[in-house]
Design a protein that fits this description.
The protein has about 450 residues and is of the alpha/beta class. It has ten helices and 39 strands. The strands form six sheets. It has a 16-stranded parallel β-sheet that branches. Strands 14-17-20-23-26-28-30-33-36 form a nine-stranded parallel β-sheet, with no helix packed on it. Strands 5-4-1-6-10-7-11 form a seven-stranded mixed β-sheet. Bound molecules: uridine-diphosphate-N-acetylglucosamine and calcium ion. Pfam families: Hexapep, NTP_transferase.
Length: about 450
């Protein structure tokens, strides 16, 4: 096996995006374009991945972290110039080097693998990944000679009318013999419509020098879509979403309305789970088997067990157990842990709290900075008073406690195991286990009040 290296071009600003955000960081299904590309390349077991950064270099590096090495292209003089920046890291290596644009987020590892294999079989010095499309505008065109061999790539802006009719395009993904690549890059000039050093010119230079240049055609143009503006971004989003959703359906997940299910690329879902319309699952979310999620729910970075139902609700950065019922209209905020068989009903907000097995907060509660044991019943409107305007304090509610409706638990405070809190109480002192705490004024009835004040009409 030859060694495989990869260079990802990600230094451009992306002028056509008209955005403050650097192009390759624009998300597709919630993940930056360039990260999609790197994650696919990582499946190929490459020896080194070098990302060329320039515009927004620090931000791009921040996103990719350990996934890549980086080379800086301080001035964006073209794609050939960009690849040249990797010379220090890759120049002396033997093997083949994939070059991929950071703005082709739909490219699959299987296609890049096929490209590398074809390149190796052909013993070529350079192999271009090409595709056919009826809308080749903007792409470099593949110019072949009478024998059907690739001669060169002409950029759209440099092409003649005749050349613009060619429907075979350069996808921007290539495989090169590493040594030949860095040698040939030195010979590329910037004598063209854009005054840039074009990477595709390497092809013509090698071809003219009598070296073997090959082209590998992929059947799926969609996969090679280059995102230069927001119209293409929305197309990429749609294609990626369909791809992700199809995979889940093939794995045994029901998507009631696939066009209305927005599932991130790293989300895992168990079989026989039903995803209702308007559901957004993002980040490192995993959903177990036999769950029902949605309609209209947003879940980010959560681990959800089996047979849990989450309807019309929002949850983030939390763990949610099995056979839990959440919603409608609940809000699970970060660092919460909702145990098995718990029930979080309508208009309940949970923040940074442990909520024990089988416990219930069925209506209109705020539970923040709390440790709620198992079998606890929080009555309608009961809340933790966790904040004094400066600091946050812990509320502990031990197993099997019963909190009456509309109670305020003023933290720090503990309600002991099996204790009762009377409805309408404001609890400022700990409640011993199995006690009843009543923290409210006694009711006084003023008899004949209306008559005394002469209010009768
Ligand atoms: C490029 C190809 C074109 C191909 C198309 C496929 C060139 C000259 N043209 O055109 O043949 O059909 O991709 O999508 O290569 N970049 C840098 N540094 C630079 C310039 C660009 O890192 O100095 C990066 C960009 O961030 C981008 C990628 O290279 O990720 C491609 O650049 P872009 O300007 O989008 O090239 P296209 O015009 O799309
Ligand atoms: Ca592009």
């Amino acid at each position: 096996m030859t060694n495989i290296y990869a260079v990802i071009l990600a230094a451009g600003k992306g002028t056509r995006m008209k955005s403050k955000l650097y192009k390759v960081l624009h998300p597709v299904c919630g993940k930056p374009m360039v990260e999609h590309v790197i994650d696919q390349i990582s499946d190929l077991h490459t020896h080194k991945i070098v990302t060329i950064v320039g515009h927004g270099a620090e931000k791009v590096k921040g996103y990719l972290g350990e996934k890549s090495e980086f080379a800086l292209q301080a001035e964006q003089l073209g794609t050939a110039h960009a690849v040249m920046q990797a010379e220090e890291i890759l120049g002396k290596e033997e093997g083949c080097t994939l070059v991929v644009c950071g703005d082709t987020p739909l490219i699959k590892s299987s296609t890049m693998e096929a490209l590398v294999n074809f390149h190796t079989e052909q013993q070529a010095k350079a192999t271009i990944l090409t595709a056919y499309t009826d809308q080749p505008d903007g792409y470099g065109r593949i110019i072949r000679n009478e024998q059907g061999m690739v001669e060169k790539i002409v950029e759209h802006k440099d092409a003649t009318d005749e050349e613009r009719k060619v429907k075979e395009i350069n996808t921007g993904t290539y495989c090169f013999d590493n040594r030949y690549l860095f040698e040939t890059l030195k010979k590329v000039s910037n004598d063209n419509a854009q005054g840039e050093y074009y990477l595709p010119d390497v092809i013509e230079i090698l071809q003219k020098a009598g070296e073997k240049v090959a082209a590998y055609q992929t059947a799926d143009f969609n996969e090679t879509l280059g995102v230069n503006d927001r119209v293409a971004l929305s197309q990429a989003e749609k294609i990626m979403r369909e791809r992700i959703n199809e995979q889940h359906m093939r794995n045994g997940v029901t998507l009631v309305s696939p066009e209305n299910a927005f599932i991130g690329p790293d989300v895992v879902i168990g079989s026989d789970t039903i995803i209702h319309p308007g559901t957004v699952l993002s980040g490192n979310t995993s959903i177990g088997a036999d769950c029902e999620i949605g309609p209209n729910s947003e879940i980010n970075n959560c681990q959800v067990g089996d047979s849990t139902v989450i309807r019309h609700s929002v949850a983030a950065d939390s763990e949610i157990g099995s056979r839990v019922a959440i919603g409608p209209f609940a809000h699970i905020r970060p660092a919460s842990q909702i145990s098995d068989e718990a029930k979080i009903g309508n208009f309940v907000e949970i923040k940074k709290s442990v909520f024990g097995k089988g416990s219930k907060a069925s209506h209109l509660s705020y539970i923040g900075d709390a440790e709620v044991g198992s079998g606890v019943n929080l009555g309608c409107g009961s809340i933790t008073v966790n904040y004094d305007g400066k600091n946050k304090f812990l509320t502990k509610i031990e197993d099997d406690a019963f909190i009456g409706c509309n109670s305020n638990l003023v933290a720090p405070v503990t309600v002991g195991k099996g204790a009762y809190v009377a409805a309408g109480s404001t609890i400022t002192n700990d409640v011993p286990g199995e006690a009843l705490a009543i923290g409210r004024a006694r009711q006084v009835n003023k008899e004949n009040y209306v008559e005394k004040l002469n209010l009768k009409k």
